[in-house]
Amino acid sequence: MDLRSIALLPVLLASSLAQDGAAPRPTAKASFSVVWEGELPAARTLALPREWEERNPGDAEFCRRCIQEGKLVQEDLLIDPEGRGVANVAISLRGITEAWPGLAPGLLTNEHGRFHPRVQFVPVGQALRVVNKDPIPHNARIQGSADLEVWNGLLAPESESSTRPFLRSGSYRVFCDLHPWMSSTVIAVRHPFVGITDARGKLDLAGLPERKSAEFVLWHERLGTASKTIELLADRPVSLTVKSSDFAAPK
Question: pLDDT tens-digit profile of 176-227?
Fold first, then answer.
């Protein structure tokens, strides 16, 4: 067999499987709702540090305007007042040891004096694209476990950069040293069976592998962690409600 024939093997194999009518692997679906229990916490307005304002009058003017316009808010605990859903809860399927494709590259945006998104999953082995849309400079200092610094880049107004690749799975905190209230969390994983709850506290995960016992781990920066184990079957979508009392507070 010559080199050209060897190179065509993957194509020929795929064609053969298609002709044989090989069925795709069945996948399951799980829907999550994370809800707040008890009395809703009082609404909080983000307060700029007074000493910082005095040292940075130009940046302070821009950030105060963002607060007044409702574009810069306290984001560590966002609850939908109507449905009581909790936003920015990271949910991931545990126990996946092999690498799976399908997770989009990460993007972190500096806009209106904040990092967006507040929480996101990124693929292990890939870099994070960091964009500054503000008319003021920012930096992104990324720390892993034991406060080990992974990357620290300064972004001029309306510029962008890319971090080093995330070589290990796990959580990484992102800070802006120029604006001390700014923070974000990046979670590096090896598979796409992950997601973040929306403003209503909802998340739908599709394309999940069938499992008799599938454990999902939930994480929130204020609530802490929780876990739920369910059965995943292709013909039986699962809907799960997780209460704030199910979380163990962060240590």
Answer: 999 999 999 999 999 999 999 999 999 999 999 999 999 999 999 999 999 9
Tokens representing residue 52 in the block: 């910082």
Residue with tokens 């454990």: 215
Burial class from Cβ neighbours inside 10 Å (0-12, 13-18, 19+) for residue 227 reads middle
Least Cα distance to 214 among 193, 227, 229, 194 occurs for: 229
Quickly tell me which residue has 């799960």 as its tokens: 240
Look-up of token digits 């809860």: 89
**Which two structure tokens, joined as six digits, stand for 4?**
């050209």
- Average pLDDT score over residue span 35-54: 95
In angstroms, the CA 246 to CA 223 distance is: 9
Residue 2 CB neighbour total at 10 angstroms: 6
**DSSP character at residue 72:** S
- Residue 82 to residues 36, 64, 220, 223: CA-CA distances in angstroms? 11, 28, 20, 19
